[in-house]
Design a protein that fits this description.
tRNA processing, metal-binding, binds iron/sulfur cluster, Rossmann fold, alpha/beta, EC 1.17.99.6, four-stranded parallel sheet, 195 residues
Length: 195
């Protein structure tokens, strides 16, 4: 695992509740953390606003400086994944992490990491691979942590602090998968068959 001195780190944040546990870990290790909200994958617009509000709440409680990209990225996101919907998560991670590494350079952060590594529902190894590749290409160290070990702790804290916890990942496709029972059954079947 990478060893680095206590330094300024840019933490890509997908949403408020997912930031709680990673923040705890990073603060404990003495990092100077700046959050970065860049998530063009969150739809529809009201949900996008709701997640920004939840993060503002967390930032205030944790005294966390956050850079917010508040531009609603629906159109660019859809253009990037159209006809490649089956690869949409990979593209989504790449878009968000590449922008994060660029921001880390701009902000002169000594490393970057992401709250995506906290979620049990994301493709953890894929996120790690993409981030490591970006770190190599842009020459900015990536701090890998398996934040999933603090899943329950983070969720519990979000409940106590009464932070909005979203019911689906972010894009309109994940919203459909969350609420369309038939589609969920079909996806589950396809997944089982591929095992
Ligand atoms: S399901 Fe989540 S990770 Fe995958 S494309 Fe949609 S928002 Fe991005």
């Amino acid at each position: 695992m990478m060893k680095m001195k206590k330094s300024k780190i840019l933490l890509h944040i997908c949403c408020g509740p997912c930031a709680l546990y990673p923040l705890k870990v990073l603060y404990k290790e003495g990092f100077e953390v700046t959050g970065y909200f860049f998530n063009p994958n969150i739809h529809p617009y009201q949900e996008f606003r709701r997640r920004i509000r939840a993060l503002r709440q967390v930032a205030e409680i944790k005294n966390l400086p956050v850079i917010y990209d508040t531009e609603y990225g629906l159109r660019n996101f859809l253009r990037a994944i159209t006809y490649r919907e089956d690869k949409r998560c990979e593209i989504c991670y790449l878009i968000r992490l590449e922008q994060t590494v660029k921001k880390a350079l701009e902000e002169k952060a000594e490393a970057f990491t992401t709250t995506l590594l906290y979620s049990r529902y994301q493709a953890h190894s894929l996120i790690k691979d993409i981030a490591e590749d970006l770190a190599f290409r842009y020459k900015v160290p990536f701090l890998y942590k398996d934040f999933r070990i603090g899943w329950e702790e983070g969720q519990e804290e979000a409940k106590i602090l009464d932070i909005y916890r979203q019911p689906y990942c972010g894009c309109i496709f994940s919203e459909e998968e969350r609420y369309n029972k038939k589609l969920r059954r079909r996806l589950r079947r396809a997944k089982n068959e591929s095992l």
